[in-house]
Amino acid sequence: xxxxxxxxxxxxxxxxITPERWSSLYWQxxxxxxxxxxxxxxxxxxxxxFKHMCELQGIEVITVDIDESLxxxxxxxxxxxxxxxNDFDIVCAFQVxxxxxxxxxxxxxxxxxxxxxxKVILSLPDVEPLVNYQFYLPKLGQLEYQVKWPxxxxxxxxxxxxxxxx
Length: 166
Prior knowledge:
Low-confidence stretches: none
Structural class: alpha/beta
Oligomer: single chain
């Protein structure tokens, strides 16, 4: 059983929701809504923004978390809960799986696949340095792309009390 890794103040809006995190949340919500689900299992509800936005669209979102202060629908380690197979249209875990030992990754993906009728949507941290480019061209519109920064390689990750791996 995992132990709580962050204090309740971790998800305070002004310190947690950065412009980069807003962008990530946007894509998590958009990719999920594009699938037109009716029932979602969200593993690790965090600040609750994903659930709130999906519920505004009439989607039922069930959350699982080990942190009671986040008021999840199911309290506990998702690896140990007796959730029904094929019970959700989508199972998602956004910035969560790195909080589990890497040895559990394969079994966690298989578990998530068993819980969904359709899709698993994941978001994982990537420490690879990137350069973002955005520009507008008439008739083509807004163009965006990323290029790996060639001058700095990521350092080997050491468990920091939260992320087992990145």
